[in-house]
Write a structure and sequence with these properties.
Blueprint lengths: L17 E7 L2 E7 L3 E4 L4 E7 L3 H9 L1 E7 L5 H9 L14 E3 L5 E3 L3 E14 L3 E13 L8 H6 L21
Antiparallel strand pairs: 1-2, 1-5, 3-4, 4-9, 5-8, 6-7, 8-9
The structure holds flavin mononucleotide.
Length: 178
């Protein structure tokens, strides 16, 4: 990285933490992402940046579908670890869930430790190198309950969580892979 880029400046960019799920040919998967953001209100559209190596990337690319579950602060580290540090090619992450809903597009939606859920259909994507940014129309959105959304800062400062290599915010000199 160029000497005039101090990556610590990126730490002041704030995020939430989400479980992004997708489905392809009847197989479902999900992963943690901090990069979900709303891009327009009318029509309601959101975006997410997903690493090309992730199984979730393969599923979203093929089906054009993804759901977003907004995590709350009570989400245990074991649960976050399953979705954020393990690949769905190796484990069934949904075995860590007590409730997974099927959305109207057929996409799975994780309901554990979740404040609200959003279901989407991709209308465009941009190849940004290691990641693809998927832009999507919101098909449905539901608020489940009030609570404190889990922020990226809370995850790091209170839960003492780290970011794996495939997270867009990974800092090699700060985070060591598990
Ligand atoms: C706090 C945190 C934030 C993350 N944010 C992202 C993200 O925004 N985009 C991404 O592609 N991966 C992100 N990851 C990494 C993926 O969750 C991780 O690579 C996961 O194992 C991919 O699973 P899959 O191969 O089953 O799709 C994040 C992980 C953590 C723990």
């Amino acid at each position: 990285m160029s000497e005039c880029i101090d990556s610590r400046a990126f730490r002041h960019i704030t995020y939430g933490l989400y479980i992004v799920c997708s489905i392809h040919e009847g197989k479902k998967n999900g992963q943690i992402a901090n990069t979900v953001f709303q891009v327009t209100a009318n029509p309601p559209r959101i975006a997410v940046s997903i690493n090309k190596e992730n199984l979730t990337h393969e599923y979203i690319s093929n089906s054009g579908l993804f759901s977003v579950s907004v995590l709350d602060e009570s989400a245990p580290m074991k649960f976050i670890g399953a979705f954020g540090f393990r690949c769905g090619r190796d484990i069934d992450k949904f075995s860590f869930c007590s409730e997974v809903k099927v959305g109207e597009t057929g996409c799975p939606i994780v309901m554990d430790y979740v404040l609200s859920v959003i279901e989407t259909r991709v209308f465009n994507s941009v190849d940004v190198g290691t990641h693809t940014v998927f832009f999507a129309d919101v098909i449905s959105a539901e608020m489940l309950r009030e609570g404190e959304p889990l922020t990226y800062a809370y995850y790091h400062e209170v839960k003492k969580g780290r970011s794996p290599k495939n997270a867009p915010t990974y800092e090699a000199h700060v985070n060591k892979e598990e």
